[in-house]
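FIELD: query
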Amino acid sequence: MRFHRLHIALAEIEPPIWRRVEVPSHVNLEELHRIIQAAMGWLDYHLHSFEIGDRRYQLPDEEDAGLDDPPLDERDLTLRELPRGTRFRYEYDFGDSWIHDIRVERVHESDDDLALCSDGARACPPEDCGGVGGYENLLQILSEPEHSEYEETLAWLGGSFDPDAFRLQAVNSALVALYREPPRGPTTRTSHKRVTR
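FIELD: result
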């Protein structure tokens, strides 16, 4: 089976937060969205879009019908159409605006049939923390236990958060679960389907 090796990195964050993921080439952008969510550690609470060249792709929405240049349907484009070296962007959560820079590193044959992560670094930021600026502020607060917002922030995070943590086995467990579980996420757009083999 043909696979695309993708390097996915959150933009504007240092040290980098990134994943290297092997994805079946037949996967469309809607399915790739779910793979990125699982690989990065997002919870799929918000809308998303892809930008490839000068084209924007997302799930169809009736509100887009009146636009001069409406987005294209992300279900109509598969990775097969993206050659090695292609660079594109994925935006998650239009409020916090998490931009992911994606690069097709390699197109190759494999005996696998599931998307898997082979490498990565650092934990995904918490959902709804305010984008890059909010995340930097959160890390600053966590680095100062005497900060007036330290306890409140720690409680909001559920008691702990390690920004340097990356657990490859947990990421791959989340990816494998995509093939067994019904999709989750926002319901304001056309219903999602599970990743298919």
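FIELD: remark
Confidence is low (pLDDT under 50) at residues 187-194.
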